[in-house]
Design goal:
heterotrimer, A mainly alpha, B mainly alpha, C alpha/beta, A: mainly alpha, three-stranded antiparallel beta sheet, 10 strands, C: alpha/beta, six-stranded mixed beta sheet, 26% strand, globular
Chain lengths: 548, 293, 242
């Protein structure tokens, strides 16, 4: 290719007239295939568009797409199944949106058959640990209601349990109450105790209240240790009636203890579900931390809801305290010790605060380490502490929060990468591409972008000069391509020339593209003749092309 | 009833618990961390001092230095585990609290595993003597406690008021975001803070070991008392902590003298609850007006 | 401006190349280039929400994520970060950046004097802070009487003066001033800008972000427009003297 611009000669000129053919300097000839290949060949890394499928799609639900079983007395479905139509395969599919009920059912089944699958010689350790785990689990579930649902960081749950256990044992010894009355009495005591410790929660901020409740636990411990009536000499107060009949054989006794504790945990799960998932829980989910003011403005009395949850939970903790008394035949100051609170908190934290499955799984893990791995001595607490520390440092919502946390992290990374790499020259962004139903549009835009990239390399000073001298008529190939592209633009915001006065004043306007809506004025310049207006309009379009 | 004894007891206790409370208070207000591992640092520095007295020398300066250094070391450990990894993550206050509790759990049991459950004792550091001031008999350990605690506290507070690092810490207390804009590294400053508060815990441990024993769980009760004082004083306020320490010290000594030792905690918590219900932000709400906003 | 008395060798203080920054999924700054040379006063003008503050925050490392190179005095301070806003800010500040942020970001409990001291935390500035304080007080006269007053008790205009004074205390080669007149009465805002324009820059440079072009027009060396995360105008002009 020569350095000087080649001359274009009008091919029609020669045949019409005998005068010199019209000519104009133009771009050197460039086969359109070359820039086309350059702009469409993939140099950049390709990124996936769309979303991964996170759910298994079950085929063939027949006509039951909108048929769902609900169970009494709620309106809930047994399984949350979503039916959908797959446009790609033209088939109907179903997705199990929430698989948690399946996991719960499997866990319950495992708990129910636990005594039968364990060898008899491990019953002493494992079954006792399992019974203890169920009791801890129910305390933790009630505590989870306070910390997770109500959002009150209280450490006084064990104070309530212990107070109920001590009071019921004391009453049983003094009055000779039967075993079944102790949990009921415990509930009343728990409620009263709950009212007392809920009062400061009305006024104090989160951490202040946490420290205060820690003090209350310590207060109870010191009082119990020093009080002669509550068995400071014997290391606990014992003598409460047991719910296990005396005539049972030892293996049967253990089974009874285990199943009774298991039943207690199921009651706790129901309490959790009916508080957290119903009106109170919903109200409180509307009022998360730092958004209380907004909730209040929506008319939610979240203080009242919190205190109600606190009191319900305290009542249940009292019930558990009464159960503790008839399960272990009394109460010990261990209930109030700082270590018990810490261990229990570690259970909540490891499982994940704010979810019932977290409370149960955390309890299983910690009780297993604490009671079954006795062989390693105090190191097992170091292990628990290390697990707890790791969970707190790396996980936002405990073990059961891993999935959500991972998805949040992935979404963040993806959107960061997209927003920093997406070259929005008209091509659809990946997010848009997944949302749009008309996939042709994706390719139309991609083609349009490639075409514009090609046309951009045709715009040179010589081409513009050519247009300036001869806006109408036959043009060189480069200019002709540009003009054809400009003509094919959509009507919306297309530039046009408006004649203000014939042969005297012209103006550039932008078409609205809608019938009845007048064009808008683009600039307030008027042009004295049509050719100048043509050229100004051309320049405008070229500028828009270069900027796109 | 011997008022002199009551007053000296009150002042001694106030000094020890006040040291702990000020340590906790500074940590809370500058780092936003409720250092629940303070009891562990306390016990750790007690053991550090005990090891020093066993293997190096049993002279008072060595033991003090060992206690304070181990405390500072414990502070660094807590800072590295519970503050630096999560300080800019969401819901840091609760997570930091939990992380510190986890350190406390693991650390105390580790001490238990290494040193065994038997309590250790330090030699008498201040000798055996008595002074009679205005008819009040002051024993050597009480005088030594008060003097050393006051000395170190004054040193720390003066340093905080006047030096560049002190200004750094105070600036970070007020507005961590602005602090990073003027060139204060949050993480390096947090290390200084934790070294300082850990040293305070070490001092309190050595001094309190004169009356209590050193055992793996000996730190928990002092920590809870220190926390209560910090609460009463208003978390984050040094003058509030001093006032709270005096108040609770007087209460403890008076209750012990009038009602008996087992009622100390009961009256103490009733007092705390009363104060907190009257002033939800503690005594500091009255003392310090600039903290509003 | 090509003034003969400034014919001393000029350095590029700030060289931003291909900077993109944003918060989470939002990209606020798009592939931005900016050069600032020493002794220069640059105004960045743009409407609310077009990325002026985010540009400053990106230079200080305070945005959610950022890509691209930022050379401050020849040192790379921009890194590809995706988390931890503010984690490296103090290191950037020690390299010689003074950011005077939008909204005052003051320390409520410190007195005005301590506050000014706190502006000079970098080691070199700390040793000569009394002279620096004198200079700042000469610019902001009203602060002289308020030296012992906690900043929390000052009025909005005084707070802004303290915040700007704190920034000027630093031993910085680049001053970034974000919306100095925002939220102030027009008169006070004008006075604050006057004071900023009166600061002797010497070897350092100053970038002022403003919404109000009228306050800066004709009084700074160049004005750059900012629109939708991109700079319009003489963003990367070469130095007046090579």
């Amino acid at each position: 290719m020569s350095e000087t611009a080649p001359i274009w000669i009008d091919p029609l000129g020669d045949y019409e007239t005998k005068v010199d053919a019209r000519s104009a300097p133009t771009n050197a000839f460039l086969p359109p295939q070359v820039p086309w290949d350059e702009t469409t060949s993939f140099k950049a890394k390709l990124h996936r568009i769309g979303r991964l499928r996170y759910y298994y799609k079950w085929p063939g639900h027949g006509s039951r797409l909108w048929w769902r079983t609900r169970y009494w007395p709620t309106r809930r479905r047994v399984l949350d199944i979503r039916g959908e139509y797959n446009r790609k395969t033209s088939r109907r599919e179903k997705t199990i949106v929430d698989k948690r009920p399946i996991w719960w059912a499997m866990a319950f089944a495992l708990f129910a058959v636990l005594p039968f699958i364990l060898p008899q010689d491990t019953w002493n350790t494992v079954l006792t640990a399992a019974a203890l785990m169920c009791i801890y689990g129910s305390i933790n579930l009630a505590w989870m209601l306070i910390i997770g649902t109500a959002g009150i960081f209280s450490l006084a749950s064990y104070a309530v349990v212990g107070a109920a256990a001590y009071a019921t044992t004391y009453a049983a010894i003094q009055l000779g109450l039967p075993w079944w009355s102790l949990p009921l009495l415990g509930s009343v005591i728990g409620l009263v105790f709950g009212v007392v410790i809920a009062l400061p929660a009305l006024k104090l901020d989160g951490l202040y209240y946490a420290l205060l409740t820690l003090g209350i636990v310590e207060l109870c411990r010191v009082y119990v240790i020093q009080s002669g009536e509550l068995g400071s000499a014997t290391g606990g107060l014992f003598g409460a009636p047991s719910y296990v009949p005396d005539w049972l054989s030892p293996p049967l006794r253990q089974m009874t203890l285990y199943y009774a504790s298991f039943a207690l945990m199921i009651i706790a799960l129901f309490v959790y579900r009916f508080v957290d998932g119903k009106r109170l829980g919903r109200l409180l989910k509307m009022a998360p931390e730092k958004k209380e003011a907004f909730a209040e403005a929506c008319g939610i009395d979240f203080y009242r809801a919190r205190i109600n949850v606190f009191l319900i939970s305290s009542t249940f903790l009292g019930f558990t305290g009464g159960f503790y008394a008839i399960h272990f035949g009394g109460a010990s100051p261990n209930l109030f010790s700082f270590d018990t609170v810490l261990l229990s908190l570690s259970m909540l934290v490891i499982g994940g605060i704010g979810r019932s499955e977290g409370a149960v799984l955390g309890t299983v893990i910690v009780v297993f380490i604490d009671r079954v791995m006795i062989g390693i001595g105090p190191l097992r607490y170091v292990l628990i502490g290390a697990i707890m520390l790791g969970v707190v440092l790396f996980l936002r919502g405990g073990i059961f929060g891993i999935k959500t946390q991972f998805r949040i992290w992935r979404a963040k990374k993806q959107s960061e990468n997209r927003s920093s790499r997406a070259e929005k020259g008209g091509e659809m962004l990946p997010e848009e591409a997944t949302e749009t139903d008309n996939k042709d549009e994706i390719y139309r835009r991609r083609f349009d972008k490639a075409q514009r990239d090609f046309l951009k390399c045709l715009v040179t000073d010589t081409v513009i000069e050519e247009h300036r001298t001869r806006p109408l008529g036959q043009h060189s190939e480069a200019l002709e391509r540009l003009l054809i592209y400009f003509r094919g633009q959509t009507q919306v915001d297309k530039y046009a020339i408006m004649v203000l006065e014939d042969f005297k004043a012209y103006r550039i306007v932008g078409l609205s593209g809608r019938r009845g809506t007048p064009p808008r004025v683009v600039e307030d310049r008027t042009y004295p003749n049509a050719n100048e207006a043509y050229h100004a309009l051309f320049l405008r379009r070229v500028q828009d092309l270069m900027e796109s | 009833m011997d008022f002199g004894l009551v007053i000296t007891n009150a002042i001694t206790l106030a000094c020890i618990y006040g040291t702990l409370a000020i340590g906790l208070s500074i940590t809370w207000s500058s780092l936003g961390l409720v250092n629940m591992a303070y009891g562990f640092i306390f016990a750790l520095s007690g053991y550090g001092a005990w090891l020093a007295s066993l293997y190096i020398s049993s002279s008072a300066p060595v033991i003090f230095a060992a206690g304070i250094l181990t405390g500072a070391l414990g502070g660094i450990v807590v800072c590295l585990c519970a503050f630096i990894p999560i300080h800019d993550k969401p819901s840091f206050p609760i997570r930091g609290l939990t992380a510190a509790l986890a350190i406390s759990l693991a650390g105390n049991e580790l001490l238990m595993w290494i040193f065994g459950p038997r309590a250790k004792s330090l030699p008498q550091l201040f000798g055996f003597w008595k002074v009679n001031i205005f008819g009040v008999v002051v024993t050597s350990d009480k005088a030594g406690t008060v003097v050393s605690a006051l000395f170190l506290l004054t040193l720390v507070l003066l340093w905080m008021r006047s030096s560049r690092r002190g200004l750094e810490i105070r600036a970070m207390m007020m507005n961590p975001h602005a602090a990073s804009i003027v060139g204060i590294g949050v993480r390096s400053t947090s290390i200084y803070v934790m070294i300082m508060t850990g040293g305070l815990a070490g001092l309190a441990a050595v001094v309190l070991a004169q009356t209590y024993w050193i055992s793996p769980f000996s730190g928990i009760t002092p920590m809870i008392k220190g926390l209560s004082i910090a609460l009463v004083g208003g978390l984050g306020s040094v003058p509030g902590a001093v006032a709270g320490a005096l108040l609770l010290g007087v209460n403890e000594a008076l209750t012990a003298a009038l009602l008996g030792g087992q009622y100390v905690l009961i009256t103490q918590f009733l007092l705390i609850i009363l104060i907190l219900i009257l002033r939800p932000r503690g005594i500091a709400g009255i003392l310090d007006r600039a903290r509003e906003a | 401006m090509n003034k003969p008395e400034h014919a001393v060798q000029r350095r590029i203080v700030l060289d931003v190349n291909g900077l993109s920054a944003g918060w989470g999924p939002v990209r606020v700054i798009h592939d931005l280039d900016l050069k600032v040379s020493s002794g220069e006063r640059v105004g960045i003008v743009g409407l609310n929400g077009h990325g002026k503050s985010t540009l400053f925050q990106a230079i200080a490392g305070l945005t959610g994520w950022q890509r691209g190179s930022i050379l401050l005095e020849g040192h790379q301070v921009g890194r590809t970060r995706s988390q931890g806003p503010g984690r490296y800010t103090h290191l950037v500040v020690r390299r010689g950046l003074a950011l005077i942020p939008q909204g005052d970001e003051i320390f409520h409990g410190l007195t005005v004097e301590e506050h000014l001291d706190s502006g000079a935390f970098t080691r070199r500035a700390w040793s000569e802070r009394s002279e620096r304080k004198k200079k700042v007080l000469a610019i902001f006269q009203p602060l002289q009487k308020l030296m012992k007053v906690p900043v929390g008790r000052l009025s909005g205009g005084e707070r802004r003066m303290v915040a700007i004074g704190r920034g000027l205390m630093a031993d910085a080669s680049l001053f970034l001033v974000d919306e100095p007149s925002l939220g102030l009465a027009p008169k006070i805002g004008k006075a604050v800008i006057e004071a900023l324009l009166a600061v002797e820059l010497g070897d350092s440079a100053m970038v002022i972000a403003e919404q109000n072009v009228g306050l800066l027009e004709g009084r700074v060396d160049r004005i750059i427009g900012m629109h939708a995360g991109k700079l319009k105008g003489e963003a990367s002009v070469l130095l007046p003297h090579a």
